[in-house]
Sequence to fold (229 residues):
Amino acid sequence: MRVLSVTHGPSVPGGVFDEVVETSGHTLERWSVPDGGTPDPAKSYDAVMVFGGSMHPDQDDHFAWLGSEESFLKDVLADRVPVFGVCLGAQMLARAAGAKVGPASAPEVGWLDVELTAAGVSDPVLGVLARLATVLQWHHYTFAVPEGGVELARSDVCSQAFRLSQRAWAIQFHAEVTLPMISDWAGELPDDLPMTPEAFVARANAEIVSSNDQGRALCAAFLREAAAG
Fold:
């Protein structure tokens, strides 16, 4: 398959998701939205993955390219191209689907639990996770589940995942993240952390194998669904 990885900066790549695409023998292409350029038409891709970033999904006055990304994601949804969004990518998918995005009632930063809903347990993608999973959270914003969508997971603070009938999945947590990415983020945004950067990275060392296993399983399940047509 031809898979597009959509990113928002050098420290927020596709992590283990990109790895799974390549090791599975698919063709991986990348679009770093802030760098400009235009991807091919949405329908030319077999699957699209959209990842995180430190910006928020309503900051068009600071990041004019958010509008072009929304337009592309609207085409992805309209053309029913399988798509998976992570954190900012999930929020942008919600925005493209017409749902509200905005500040969460509280930020979530750290290794926290998310719980699958009944729909999540039976979902062919999210259902590869345990019903209660420990994941890396790093967000200040959240999304409303788009009209017609199904909520797949929640935390104590907000919705954590949804699915749309257009073969679109979105998660608020960072299943794609690698240890080098976490180290970069801790250095770039130390004031976001609930502990020292050193302690945060030490905790990541203890959690990263399980997290990466979860991320690889999610991406593999998504690719299976995309390939199934």
